[in-house]
Amino acid sequence: MNARATEAAVKPTAQQGKRTAWLQHPLVRPLGALVALLLVDAFLVPGFFHLEVKEGHLYGAIVDILNRAAPLMLAALGMTLVIATRGIDISVGAVVALSGTVSAMLIGGSTPNMPMALALAASLGVALLCGLWNGVLVAGIKLQPIVATLILMVAGRGLAQLLTDGQIVTVYYEPFFFLGGGYLAGLPFSLFVVAAVFAVTLLLVKKTALGLFIQAVGINPVAARLAGLRTATLITFVYVFCSACAGLAGMLITSNIKSADANNAGLLLELDAILAVTLGGTSLAGGKFSLVGSMIGALIIQTLTSTIYSLGVPPEVNMVVKSIVVFVVCISQSSEFKTILRRSA
Amino acid sequence: MSAVATQTRGRAAFTGAPWFTSLVTVILLVAMLGIGGAVYPGFLSLQVIFNLLIDNAFLLVIAVGMGFVILAGGIDLSVGSVLALSTMISAWLLQHAHWPPVAVIALVLLLGACFGGAMGAIIHLFKLQPFIVTLAGMFLARGLCYLISVESITIDDPVFTAMSQTQVPILGGFLSPGAIIALVVLLVAIWLAHFTAFGRAVYAVGGNEQSAAMMGLNVGRTKVLVYALSGFCASLGGVLFAFYMLSGYGLHGQGTELDAIAAVVIGGTLLTGGYGYIAGALSGVLVLGAIQTLIAFDGTLSSWWTKIVIGALLFIFCVVQRVMGGRSKE
């Protein structure tokens, strides 16, 4: 109430308020950032928006960015729900490595060791198990999320390396490459995977009570439990969902590079996913989340990376830029900053 | 009846005592060394134990800093990259700018403390979660390494080389100067944590920030100092690492933050803050080092077993902490 009163006091007339009302929409800032980045590209990178059809496929920088952002978008979707319940999952990269390794090992050479559908189901199953492990630790044993997922983050990559004996597993089975490198209706197939997962998640969150429940747990877990929500089941589900998304991302990556590298697959993907979620306007304090925002966040990160590459800036600058973006976004999100801003306005 | 009741109460007091997990870690360490000595000939020599200290001196210093942060209820994910940045800055200043080594070390330590302090200030002023701020700090420090140089820079400064090659004889074995510095840091840290007002403030803030503020403690100052201390320790760890490796490289110390957190947890400090001993960092680091040494002595086990064992240990200790924490609250 108090905050709203001050806000009204800042705006002198109702008309002006109406004009700036759309600026208050949570998606304006991430979208603005994305558009600004694209504008930079449009001016500085020749032929950035150029699209052409070659052999029935759409080619161009934009398609490339979308394709490369696919694993990150998947990871960010799962991470959004976890962060919405006040949690965090830093084992995403390890799950990517594990599921990628399992799928590569089960499919193996040019003739698959087992039917591909079964192999993919098995690696998704491994990811689900990982999620269940995280969920039980957080919701059952009530460990802090960052510590609970730290365990899998450390051990998961070790397990993946144990499976492959430290080697990079190469896949030669052609149909598997379609998943991460194929084209459907002229567009990369991975985009359809992302779109399907996004649609299902959006439906679950918007058309069922799940979204409301997740928000309730994020705003006040105790109140949610007292109100009769099964918070433990809900939190477990969120971690299982996050790992499933990471598992899918792992399969996309493995299929795209035609091999599984237990050491480097999905390295630091959890950080990029957290960054994407934060950029998209989801509050790290839980409760307030936006799936669309996270997708935009993932696109911002990938566009930033592509921009840095195509501008000829050393790619190492990328990390510095990313970190400064995180600092700026986090500080501007904090209520203390808004208070300071209001006072000075 | 009453005798049984006293007995159970006695047992609860024993397992619930603050030093219980720390004791478990020490027993674990002794057991691991014992098993190692029984299975592998030559394992149980004084020098093997000294080597644990020599090889993990940088980790011990970092774990001490991390111990303060965790005691104060925070977490610092940037320590590994601050270590890398410190090796990088030292290497560049020594090799390309030809600064005297003492000035280089002083500057690096100052920069580390400022870096940590700045993160602490952001965490406190804007009430942000420590892990996201230090995560950004981790990116920033790693990125800055690559801005200095993508390649590894070899250090051939005589002082650094001397530090790396000197052997200080003690009790028939020898320690490196780095290990001795690490032990001194540990002693100073124990004094700081248990015998000064700052130490008591750290425990109070970690126990309950609100009560600490109501008691009139300067919470902001304590938090900034704690992160500055962690940054200082991380850069000192970097200097020790530079002594050890004689190079500066942006990929140095990857995952060190996780090792340091694991060492602190295994050493018996509660991750929720306010509970534990700084000395636990030593037993935690030695347990991690002993796992690596055991796996190296075995020869048939691959290095990734280290990760799996560390993960399993982390799991066991977290669950034990959780179970005992719940009981003591009841």
UniProtKB/TrEMBL annotation, chain B:
Key words of the record: Cell membrane, Membrane, Transmembrane, Transmembrane helix
Q: Where is it predominantly found?
A: membrane
- Keyword Metal-binding in the entry? The reply is no
Q: InterPro entries in the record, alphabetically?
A: ABC_transp_permease
Q: Which Pfam families match?
A: BPD_transp_2
Does the record carry Nucleotide-binding as a key word?
Answer: no
**Protein's cellular compartments:** Cell membrane
Q: How does it sit in the membrane?
A: Multi-pass membrane protein
Where does the chain cross the membrane? Answer: 19-40, 52-71, 77-95, 102-125, 131-149, 170-193, 224-246, 258-291, 303-320
Tell me which NCBIfam families the record gives: PRK11618.1 (NF008630)
Protein name as it appears in the record: Sugar ABC transporter permease YjfF
Instruction: State the organism named in the record.
Output: Telluria antibiotica
